[in-house]
Write a structure and sequence with these properties.
By secondary structure, the protein is α/β, with parallel strands linked by helices. Helix content is 60%, strand content 7%.
Length: 356
């Protein structure tokens, strides 16, 4: 691999190369380094039909050298002519460099897959760049967001105000466009954790919430949306438990009705000798299988009540061992239990007063 000095004025930038964003501070640091030590890493170019050279990679180094007005630049001259191979090499080189943004990656992958000049398959790109297909798909999914959101996307996983990581955006990518960008901007503004973004996304994916309500939710802040999610989840848990209790009660009622019908049939079918207490016996038999709804409800409630066992100090103090991430769910479940019990107590207290 030969390195030759080429006149700076004979070299042209590649305007179609994957990387087009350059940090000014980083460029100034590079210029300072080149001014003191010279260009330590050559750029790579290819010759064009007019005797000039076009950069394959090294645009940032070329910009620094041009600004410093260096007469020549050390270059590696490539003999590759296939456009797809050249573009793949440009991507591969930039993937090793800092500052190659997620959106630049996404646009580069998308171009390889959809530009008529390349029309590559995702499997081909994956094998050539050594990146999993899922990695490439996730990058391209970033292009679902509008320009205002794309400008905020940064590399890495550190959450910053008015910035967005890829992990923060992934839960929102499949939402309809009318919700997607607005929520992404709220996530950036309120510096929301990925776990919280997933909760908010679940609200807007829920089919039980109308589009009209979802539209109103867009005016809420991130913390307000989290509070809405918590209330909605708690209400759903209560509804599900109530539905299950109703279903179980119906099953028990059906079973009791069968037993009552069977007992009544037995009473009617069995011949009873007439004697002075016959009417009383029949009345007692009917009363035995005829229970008021309130009595039935009370008996079923008692049957389902677990025996009271006081919580020992050891059990109570085990609350401190609950993982921080699980404490929120534990408290929510506790509120649900207390709320249901309070409703039961209130109802039966009313009945007790009536019996007085």
């Amino acid at each position: 691999m030969d390195i030759i000095q080429i006149a700076t004025h004979l070299i042209d930038e590649d305007k179609d190369q994957p990387r087009y964003q350059f940090d000014e501070d980083s460029l100034q640091e590079l210029m300072t380094s080149i001014g003191e030590l010279g260009l330590l890493s050559p750029i790579k170019v290819r010759s064009t039909h007019d005797g000039r050279y076009k950069i394959i990679y090294g645009n940032r180094r070329f910009k620094a050298c041009s600004t410093l007005q260096l007469p020549t630049i050390p270059c590696i001259v490539s003999t590759v002519t296939d456009e797809t191979e050249i573009y793949l090499e440009q991507i591969a080189e930039n993937l090793t460099r800092e500052g190659f943004s997620p959106i630049e990656e996404a646009e580069a992958f998308n171009k390889l897959l959809n530009d008529a000049k390349f029309k590559s398959s995702i499997k081909f790109v994956s094998s050539k760049l050594g990146k999993p297909e899922s990695y490439i798909k996730n990058k391209i999914d970033l292009l679902r967001f509008g320009k205002a959101v794309r400008k905020l996307i940064i590399s890495g996983s550190e959450i910053k105000k008015d910035r967005l990581t890829e992990e923060q955006l992934m839960p929102l990518k499949d939402l309809p466009i009318e919700y997607r960008d607005s929520l992404a901007l709220a996530v950036a503004r309120d510096e929301m954790f990925v776990s919280d973004v997933k909760k908010i996304a679940s609200l807007f994916k829920d089919k039980d919430i109308s589009d009209n309500t979802k539209g109103k939710l867009l005016y809420k802040s991130g913390p307000e949306l989290l509070e809405t999610w918590s209330v909605f989840r708690q209400n759903r848990v209560e509804r599900e438990k109530a539905a299950k209790a109703k279903e179980d009660a119906k099953a028990r009622e059906d079973e009791k009705a069968k037993e009552s019908a069977s007992a009544a049939s037995s009473v009617v079918a069995k011949p009873v000798e007439k004697h002075a207490g016959q009417e009383q016996i029949i009345r007692q038999s009917v009363e035995a299988i005829t229970v008021t709804p309130l009595e039935d409800r009370l008996q079923r409630f008692i049957a389902n009540l677990p025996p009271f066992t006081p919580l020992t100090p050891e059990i109570t103090n085990s609350y401190t061992a609950i993982k921080p991430g699980d404490k929120e769910n534990f408290v929510q479940d506790l509120d649900v239990v207390i709320g249901i019990l309070e409703k039961h107590i209130k109802e039966w207290q009313i009945v007790r007063e009536l019996t007085k």
